[in-house]
Specification:
By secondary structure, this protein is α+β, with helices and mostly antiparallel strands. Helices cover about 35% and strands about 20% of the residues. The chain is built from 5 helices and 9 strands, in the order H-E-E-E-H-E-H-E-H-E-E-E-E-H.
Length: about 190
């Protein structure tokens, strides 16, 4: 009986490892994790952004919000280091920072992204319906909860960084534990 339980635990661990590895960017060359349809949002300058405007260029995409106390600034700092490591050609790969917080208007996004000037970033926002559509397409999640405190609402959100290829398809996912070097390497490959 104990041996059977141990075998089941081993199988569960192996399955979990395989699923996590596939979700964190381990893939065959050229394999797409998901195809993404065209979407439309508003950028941090107040102009319409269409995903089709990437014109066959790769991009990074991250869901977050400007009032995030830890995960967003840490991920964006890693992204900034990755751009420096990847070299000047990497600046052709924009980072799309999609805010899931309705407080993040274009001017708020512009100010926030100015703190990460090493990143060629576009802050993106839109109506709740537009944001929900993009979140759903990427299989991400977020939840806004009113805390009743003076700090305002808190936002829980997915923490993955998505790497999009020239066709706009997701080819890799990176977790918050991804190093800048790993990310820079993936950027160089595209």
């Amino acid at each position: 009986m104990t041996m059977r339980i141990d075998l089941l635990r081993l199988l569960a661990f192996a399955l979990t490892f395989i699923l996590l590895a596939s979700a964190c960017g381990v893939r065959e060359p050229g394999e797409k994790l998901m195809e993404i349809p065209v979407f439309e949002l508003v950028d941090h300058r107040g102009t319409t952004f269409r995903s089709s405007s990437l014109n066959g260029e790769p991009a990074l995409l991250f869901f977050g919000f400007t009032h995030c106390p830890d995960a967003c600034p840490m991920m964006l700092s890693t992204v900034a280091r990755a751009y420096r490591e990847a070299g000047p050609d990497a600046r052709r790969i924009p980072t799309l920072f999609v805010s899931v917080d309705p407080r993040d208007t274009p001017p708020v996004l512009a100010k926030y992204l100015s703190y990460f000037s090493a990143i060629p970033a576009k802050g993106l926002t839109g109506s709740k319906e537009q944001i929900d559509t993009v979140v759903k397409h990427f299989g991400a999640k977020y939840d806004i909860r009113d805390t009743g405190s003076a700090a305002g609402a808190t936002v829980d959100h997915s923490l993955y960084l998505y790497l999009l290829d020239r066709e706009g398809d997701v080819v890799a996912l990176f977790s918050p534990s991804t190093s800048a070097s790993e990310l820079a390497k993936a950027m160089k490959e595209l």
